[in-house]
Design brief:
The longest helix has 4 residues. Strands 2, 3, 4, 8, 9, 10, 11 and 13 form an eight-stranded mixed β-sheet that branches. A three-stranded antiparallel β-sheet has the order 5-6-7, with no helix packed on it. A two-stranded parallel ribbon has the order 1-12. A hairpin with a 2-residue loop joins strand 5 and strand 6. The radius of gyration is 15 Å and the shape is globular. It is mostly beta strands. The chain has one helix and 13 strands; from the N terminus they run βββββββββββαββ.
Length: about 160
């Protein structure tokens, strides 16, 4: 436990493979899975495998949007904090936080009414991070914006 990196209850995260830099995330140990707000999503088949395309606006209104795509990793039922169950698509993406990069599972959701476009759940933090709920943005403010998408096939 002593070697774990301490996070505040909110942090700046990046997902360079999806073209996302400087996204505000709520760090939520009460949530098992992580969720990313998408404005729209659509399914298609590529090379015989299911894929999902999506569009999100990670920054301020008028700051631009990102269209991305990823293979569907899984699709399962998720119960939100209000007890509502919905079927969600899960993708895998590389998360960059506090100088650490790791592959995590993210479900795509409509988080339009939420203050944070990203919710980082406990499975994404396992064995690397711990949370101090009295603190926030401990690892600096990343410059919000878009990054050029790239693929990194190396394991976490």
């Amino acid at each position: 436990m002593a070697n774990r990196i301490v996070l505040g209850w909110r942090e700046w995260v990046s997902m360079p493979g999806l073209g996302i830099v400087g996204l505000r995330a709520k760090i939520d140990t009460g949530a098992r899975s992580s969720a990313l707000h998408v404005d729209a999503q659509w399914r298609y088949v590529e090379g015989g495998a299911p894929w999902v395309g999506f569009r999100l606006s990670p920054g301020a209104i008028g700051a631009g949007s990102i269209e991305g795509c990823a293979p569907v990793h899984d699709e399962r039922e998720v119960t939100d904090s209000g007890g509502h169950r919905t079927q969600r698509v899960f993708v895998r993406a590389r998360l960059r936080l506090a100088g650490v990069e790791r592959e995590i599972e993210i479900n795509l959701a409509d988080r339009r009414g939420m203050r944070f476009p990203m919710l980082l759940g406990r499975t994404a933090m396992a064995r690397v991070f711990t949370v101090d709920p009295a603190r926030s943005f401990l690892h600096g403010k990343a410059a919000p914006g878009l990054a050029a998408p790239h693929s990194d096939p190396s394991p976490p």
